[in-house]
């Protein structure tokens, strides 16, 4: 029986929770499970961050033992990258939205989609098993040899196993997204009519497909060196630790774009809706994502300028690191042009993308250009300046986009409206807390404080205390945000199908929440999805995004 017939007849028999969720192959439920699981992991990662900042509130605090401090930043980095940002953007948002946005009933391979989620959950649980057996990894999220080869205990082995499983989940998901986007678009949904979030997710999927095997090779050879007598990274036996760094960063720098390109897609969906203007430069935004994806594989060695490379070998990577700023700048210019002259409505999602993402991510991008220059990187590498840069990109950028997306699509997923006032309070706490936490780190780094240190010089106490206060503000904002959404699920006002007046298919053709097979009848696309203020089907869209 085809999906159309199933959608028409309906399955009125109530399913058990086990069949309805554990055995589900519905992309929407899988997306929700990704989101809930990632949020739980996020709070564990956030707790590790709070412990790190509490330890650094004073130069000689003894909240954590040195070994525990190493474990805390290892777990924090691993969770936030592999178990929160990447699965939230690609697993949660991607799974829930992409099929509806392209006018499909589901993903191309629904069972493989479910397998991807359960592998993700398994990978996370394997990492957490190390907590309960007293073998938490302590080598940092990069696990550089030779220390990682010599590290005692099973903690790193759990980490390697977890990364392997998570990588397999990412590869399967990437294949599914590519095939679905390529083959399952509804009638009239050409590539140049796809929502920009779909473009972003497609590029991200290619990055994961081609980059993840390099990470698998790096951690596999590391495991072989640890337990099977190989000498890939053993210098005394002729190995080369820099080989690991090349393999690791060949994946892990493109992974930064896995964390930011879908976030850029979210920004591109929200800005035109609340500016009530067509997106400026649709093709430039879409094709610049492709350029970022391609150039992302050509800059990895800028992480290794101080690792023993010849200076001349670093110059090409410095150049590509500068060039990759161009397609990113194209996006920022087009987003600002979209805002220019618009009838802007500062809802919670709009605050997160306009003031949050555009402001904070730009700071991180500018400091990234600085670190991409060999002479500056020689002085700033492995200092807190790098920590500030990285967090302005992935926290100020990816995190604020995730928050924006959660509020923006919340009515679609739940059929309820969140509390707008408390949503805006959460934004301002996030915005203030982020700047309090990470902006002082620029000065701490320039003053010479290395990252991953347990103690520091007393003259840096004030700036570190400001950063610690900011981290607690972020923690409170996170609790307020989740409390707002949880309250809205049970007590929130019922949402209409399209409360924002948006024009992509999930808003115009699907109920809130969508039915099992997304659409009552398959949509036919006749125009691009951002024609605010323009004629559509012979009628002019008014300021609320509906035809007048």
From TrEMBL:
<dbReference type="InterPro" id="IPR000883">
    <property type="entry name" value="Cyt_C_Oxase_1"/>
</dbReference>
<dbReference type="Pfam" id="PF00115">
    <property type="entry name" value="COX1"/>
</dbReference>
<keyword id="KW-0186">Copper</keyword>
<feature type="transmembrane region" description="Helical">
    <location>
        <begin position="315"/>
        <end position="337"/>
    </location>
</feature>
<feature type="transmembrane region" description="Helical">
    <location>
        <begin position="390"/>
        <end position="410"/>
    </location>
</feature>
<keyword id="KW-0479">Metal-binding</keyword>
<keyword id="KW-1133">Transmembrane helix</keyword>
<keyword id="KW-0349">Heme</keyword>
<dbReference type="GO" id="GO:0046872">
    <property type="term" value="F:metal ion binding"/>
</dbReference>
<dbReference type="GO" id="GO:0015990">
    <property type="term" value="P:electron transport coupled proton transport"/>
</dbReference>
<keyword id="KW-0813">Transport</keyword>
<feature type="transmembrane region" description="Helical">
    <location>
        <begin position="115"/>
        <end position="136"/>
    </location>
</feature>
<keyword id="KW-0679">Respiratory chain</keyword>
<keyword id="KW-0408">Iron</keyword>
<feature type="transmembrane region" description="Helical">
    <location>
        <begin position="248"/>
        <end position="272"/>
    </location>
</feature>
<feature type="domain" description="Cytochrome oxidase subunit I profile">
    <location>
        <begin position="21"/>
        <end position="526"/>
    </location>
</feature>
<keyword id="KW-1278">Translocase</keyword>
<comment type="pathway">
    <text>Energy metabolism; oxidative phosphorylation.</text>
</comment>
<keyword id="KW-1003">Cell membrane</keyword>
<keyword id="KW-0812">Transmembrane</keyword>
<feature type="transmembrane region" description="Helical">
    <location>
        <begin position="466"/>
        <end position="490"/>
    </location>
</feature>
<feature type="transmembrane region" description="Helical">
    <location>
        <begin position="72"/>
        <end position="94"/>
    </location>
</feature>
<dbReference type="InterPro" id="IPR023616">
    <property type="entry name" value="Cyt_c_oxase-like_su1_dom"/>
</dbReference>
<feature type="transmembrane region" description="Helical">
    <location>
        <begin position="284"/>
        <end position="303"/>
    </location>
</feature>
<dbReference type="InterPro" id="IPR023615">
    <property type="entry name" value="Cyt_c_Oxase_su1_BS"/>
</dbReference>
<keyword id="KW-0472">Membrane</keyword>
<feature type="transmembrane region" description="Helical">
    <location>
        <begin position="199"/>
        <end position="224"/>
    </location>
</feature>
<dbReference type="InterPro" id="IPR014241">
    <property type="entry name" value="Cyt_c_oxidase_su1_bac"/>
</dbReference>
<keyword id="KW-0249">Electron transport</keyword>
<feature type="compositionally biased region" description="Basic and acidic residues">
    <location>
        <begin position="533"/>
        <end position="542"/>
    </location>
</feature>
<protein>
    <recommendedName>
        <fullName>Cytochrome c oxidase subunit 1</fullName>
        <ecNumber>7.1.1.9</ecNumber>
    </recommendedName>
</protein>
<comment type="function">
    <text>Cytochrome c oxidase is the component of the respiratory chain that catalyzes the reduction of oxygen to water. Subunits 1-3 form the functional core of the enzyme complex. CO I is the catalytic subunit of the enzyme. Electrons originating in cytochrome c are transferred via the copper A center of subunit 2 and heme A of subunit 1 to the bimetallic center formed by heme A3 and copper B.</text>
</comment>
<dbReference type="GO" id="GO:0005886">
    <property type="term" value="C:plasma membrane"/>
</dbReference>
<feature type="region of interest" description="Disordered">
    <location>
        <begin position="529"/>
        <end position="548"/>
    </location>
</feature>
<comment type="similarity">
    <text>Belongs to the heme-copper respiratory oxidase family.</text>
</comment>
<dbReference type="GO" id="GO:0006119">
    <property type="term" value="P:oxidative phosphorylation"/>
</dbReference>
<feature type="transmembrane region" description="Helical">
    <location>
        <begin position="32"/>
        <end position="52"/>
    </location>
</feature>
<dbReference type="GO" id="GO:0020037">
    <property type="term" value="F:heme binding"/>
</dbReference>
<dbReference type="GO" id="GO:0022904">
    <property type="term" value="P:respiratory electron transport chain"/>
</dbReference>
<feature type="transmembrane region" description="Helical">
    <location>
        <begin position="422"/>
        <end position="446"/>
    </location>
</feature>
<feature type="transmembrane region" description="Helical">
    <location>
        <begin position="349"/>
        <end position="370"/>
    </location>
</feature>
<dbReference type="InterPro" id="IPR036927">
    <property type="entry name" value="Cyt_c_oxase-like_su1_sf"/>
</dbReference>
């Amino acid at each position: 029986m085809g999906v159309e017939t199933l959608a028409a007849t309906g399955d009125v028999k109530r399913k058990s929770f086990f069949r309805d969720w554990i055995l589900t192959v519905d992309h929407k439920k899988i997306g929700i499970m990704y989101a809930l699981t990632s949020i739980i992991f996020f709070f564990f990662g956030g707790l590790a961050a709070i412990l790190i900042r509490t330890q650094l509130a004073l130069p000689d605090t003894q909240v954590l033992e040195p070994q525990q401090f190493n474990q805390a930043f290892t777990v924090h980095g691993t969770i936030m990258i592999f178990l929160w940002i990447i699965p939230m953007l690609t697993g949660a948002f991607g799974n829930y939205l992409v099929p509806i946005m392209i006018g499909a009933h589901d993903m191309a391979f629904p069972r493989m989609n479910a397998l991807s989620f359960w592998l993700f959950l398994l990978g996370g649980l394997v990492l957490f098993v190390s907590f309960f057996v007293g073998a938490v990894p302590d080598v940092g999220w990069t696990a550089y040899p030779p220390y990682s080869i010599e590290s005692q205990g099973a903690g790193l082995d759990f980490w390697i196993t977890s990364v392997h499983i998570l990588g397999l989940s990412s590869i399967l998901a990437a294949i599914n997204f590519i095939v679905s986007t390529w083959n399952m678009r509804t009638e009239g949904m050409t590539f140049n009519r796809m929502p920009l979030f779909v473009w972003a997710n497609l590029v991200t999927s290619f990055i994961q497909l081609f980059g993840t095997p390099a990470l698998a090779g790096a951690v596999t050879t590391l495991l072989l060196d640890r337990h099977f007598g190989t000498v890939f990274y053993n210098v005394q036996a002729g190995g080369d630790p820099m080989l690991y760094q090349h393999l690791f960063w060949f994946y892990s720098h493109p992974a930064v774009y896995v964390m930011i390109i879908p976030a850029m897609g979210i920004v591109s969906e929200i800005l035109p809706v609340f500016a009530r203007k067509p997106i400026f430069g649709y093709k430039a935004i879409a094709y610049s994502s492709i350029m970022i994806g391609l150039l992302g594989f050509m800059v990895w060695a800028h992480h290794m300028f101080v690792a023993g490379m010849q200076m001349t070998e670093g110059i090409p990577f410095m150049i590509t690191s500068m060039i990759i700023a161009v397609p990113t700048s194209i996006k920022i210019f087009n987003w600002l042009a979209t805002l220019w002259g618009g009838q802007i409505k500062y809802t919670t999602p709009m605050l997160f993308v306009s003031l949050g993402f555009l402001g904070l991510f730009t700071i991180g991008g500018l400091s990234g250009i600085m670190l991409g220059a060999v002479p500056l990187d020689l002085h700033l590498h492995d200092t807190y300046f790098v920590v500030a840069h990285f967090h302005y990109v992935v926290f100020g950028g990816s995190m604020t986009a995730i928050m924006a997306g959660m509020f923006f699509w919340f009515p679609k997923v739940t059929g309820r409206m969140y509390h707008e006032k408390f949503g805006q309070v959460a934004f301002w706490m996030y915005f203030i807390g982020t700047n309090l936490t990470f902006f002082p780190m620029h000065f701490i780094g320039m003053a010479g404080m290395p990252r991953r240190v347990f103690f520091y010089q007393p003259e840096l106490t004030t700036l570190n205390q400001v950063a610690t206060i900011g981290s607690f503000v972020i923690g409170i904002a996170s609790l307020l945000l989740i409390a707002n959404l949880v309250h809205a699920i049970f007590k929130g006002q019922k949402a209409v199908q399209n409360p924002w007046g948006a024009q992509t298919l999930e808003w115009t053709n699907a109920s809130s929440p969508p039915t099992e097979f997304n659409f009552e009848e398959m949509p036919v696309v006749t125009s691009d999805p951002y024609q605010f203020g323009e004629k559509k089907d012979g009628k002019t869209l008014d300021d609320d995004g509906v035809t007048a």
